[in-house]
Amino acid sequence: MSATRAALAKALAWLCTSVRVTDSGSPDCGAILHGVDGRTKKPLDVYTEITGYAVSLFQFLARTLGDASLLAMAKEAGQFLMRIQADESAYPQPSGIAGPARLYAFDTAVCVVGMARLLRATGDERYLRSAIAAGEWLLGMQHPDGSFSAMALRGEGIEDPGGFFGDGSCIHAKNAIAFLELHAITGREQFREAAARACRYTLTLQDTDGAFWDRPNSALCVHSRALLCVRGAPLCRATCWVSRRMWLPPVEESGGWRTLSGPTGLGSRTARPPGRCGERSNRFSGRGPATRRHRRRGFSA
Length: 301
Description:
- There is one protein chain.
- The protein is built from 9 helices and 8 strands.
- The chain is an alpha+beta fold.
- The chain has one domain: Glycosyltransferase.
- Strand 4 and strand 5 (233-241) form a beta hairpin.
- It is globular.
- The relative contact order is 0.08.
């Protein structure tokens, strides 16, 4: 246990000093960066999604360890998110290039979770107002079938970024957590219903062996990290982590899955194994009205 605590302390020290903006005079104060360039040792750009995760992490550790300084860091991260919150009410990710910032449904949901938990820790209703506004924007990104448009451009409109995180992606199952947090603090039934829709949609992407296809008509399969049923909700937490070929170290082929040789257990499957796909996954096999509807909405591999 002492070794574990030492490792945690070391990781926290790095997170809190090397990739967290600590300059109180900076407009990015409290934000978490993408990292540090290993060659130049220079810090990389602000990472909105990870800043949202950091709010939740620092709040949790402050409560668990009784460390008030960690709660202060959570507040700084939350205040950064409120400063950058767009007129649309989403939390933008700077594009790093000329053009409008990107408003991702997934990133905004992560930040909403952090804001909701920070509200509980502090009682500060600024976090509540910010989270509700972002949640309402997120509702507008959800389609009636429970899937999501993945991205909008600030001041412009919706655009599909493609890839595993594009429109209709299974990773948006995690948006259900944001909706459930909002339902818990507001009592608004529309948030609970939106969470249920997101989870039901994700189930349509699940293969018979339990894997999840990343999007309709896709040839990429992903692992599910957690599927937890709570009090009648179809899936209150459905969190999908994705690994793609370009990110994987040397792998072993096993039963149609490309599996990591390390302890993480992540993997991707790039072809549907014969005889393994049930009726549910065949909905998106390229035939029938369901597929045509998704294609009209831009859901392509």
